[in-house]
Amino acid sequence: LLQFSYAQTSSLTIKVVNSDSMNGINSALVFIDELNFADTETDSYGVAYFENVPLGKISINIRKQGFKPYRGNFNVTNNPNHNSARIELVEISNHLHNRDSLERNKG
């Protein structure tokens, strides 16, 4: 039974970065719907590490004060080397300040 459940899960590394600076964001709260435990905080490099993640599609939620919340999917494979995601969070204050200039640039 243990071997069976081991084969059906893998590890997952998530790095959360600031979309402007690409620097890691520490203390962001990462929650995976399919894992029934509390939020995991990113470390000082912006990294959160999970073990025993079910294979297949999972839903990732990330929250950090001052940033827009993130929700997205990730496909977990049985190769831990492939199970690493870099997710960019958008700073709310910067987003609001830059919105007008961004819209002008798009037009």
Report on the architecture of this protein.
The chain is of the alpha+beta class and 107 residues long. The chain contains 2 helices and 7 strands. The chain has helices at 2-7, 92-106; strands at residues 9-18, 29-32, 40-41, 47-54, 56-63, 70-76, 84-89. A hairpin with a 6-residue loop joins β5 and β6. The longest helix has 15 residues, at 92-106.
Layout of SSEs?
Layout: H1 2-7, E1 9-18, E2 29-32, E3 40-41, E4 47-54, E5 56-63, E6 70-76, E7 84-89, H2 92-106
Parallel strand pairs: 1-7
Antiparallel strand pairs: 1-4, 2-3, 2-5, 5-6
Radius of gyration: 16 Å
Low-pLDDT runs = none
How many distinct helices?
Answer: 2
Strand order of the largest sheet: 3-2-5-6
Beta content: 35-45%
The residue fraction in helices comes out at: 10-25%
Give the class from helix and strand content and strand pairing.
alpha+beta
Mean pLDDT: 85
Largest sheet: 4 strands, antiparallel
What is the element string, with H for helices and E for strands?
HEEEEEEEH
Oligomer: single chain
The 3D shape can be described as globular
How far apart the termini lie comes to 59 Å
Total strands: the figure is: 7
Notable traits:
107 residues, alpha+beta, 4-stranded antiparallel β-sheet, 3-stranded mixed β-sheet, 20% helix, 42% strand, globular
Brief summary:
By secondary structure, the chain is an alpha+beta fold. It has helices at residues 2-7, 92-106; strands at residues 9-18, 29-32, 40-41, 47-54, 56-63, 70-76, 84-89. 20% of the residues lie in helices and 42% in strands.
